[in-house]
Predict the 3D structure of the following.
Amino acid sequence: MAVDLARAAVPHVRPRLPFGQRLALPDGLVPLLQRTGWMLVSVGCFAGLWELLWALGIADAKLLPPPHIFLGNLAEQARFFNTAQRWQIGTGMNTGPSPAMAVLITVLASTGRVLAGLALAASLSILVGVGIRYFKLFERLTLPTITLLAPVSPIAWLPVAIFMFGIGNAPAIFMVFIALFFTMVLSTIQQIDGVNRNYINVARTMGATKRQIYARVIVPAILPGLLAVLRLNLFGAWMVVLVAEATGVGYGLGQVIMLARNTFNPSLVFFTITLIGLLGFAFDLLFRLVQRRLLYWLPRDAGSSLGL
């Protein structure tokens, strides 16, 4: 009787459930909403600080226009993306595709060059890196040359790209490829050298051949590290393709930035930079999702150390 009275005197407190369980959200959606929220807070703080500096008169609107200026008139900024038609003599910005279609064409042109160069560099670098460690003669013939060319800046290869491929998509793709290939070969070799020797010894004990050890032990072991390196090189690929386009090898986002510089249009510069940043962020998010699908055998907590 005394116990019942004591329970009645104390109010019943329901256990506090996590936010996702209270709203019955899927398990994977809760971290995504949290990351999205923090992303918006981070970008909002940066944009708010920029706007505050403009309001206080510290940032000159003619040189550093705040976001509400260069993002306030999308149609006006988009019409400058009609760079493809200006390759033809006697055409101007008022001819050709609409502003929205011009932006889409320009974005797809730059994106295609980045993905093509990245795919070529990734596939060939893995093959060459594995081949260097698999064949001793191949290592002696190629590794010194690769080590010699790795420190060369991609900008130094620009005249070579133009001499070999002229104007168009090919030189920009070549620039992306050459900027990533040598470093990714060296990274592949480093990943192979870092494989746990116990895995290889166990495979040898079970009678695996050299080819089987590379195919079923070494390559799966180095794949997480290679994908992390490839993700970082994705940003480098964007940097290189913008430089190639800015020098006139083909129309794209880099040429739009060069046009903005030549016409002293800071609003167009920051508008294009924002667009490039959004593209890079979207591709990075997509790449992380692909990584999680490919590396299904890794635990979730291991993915954080690899940038997943």
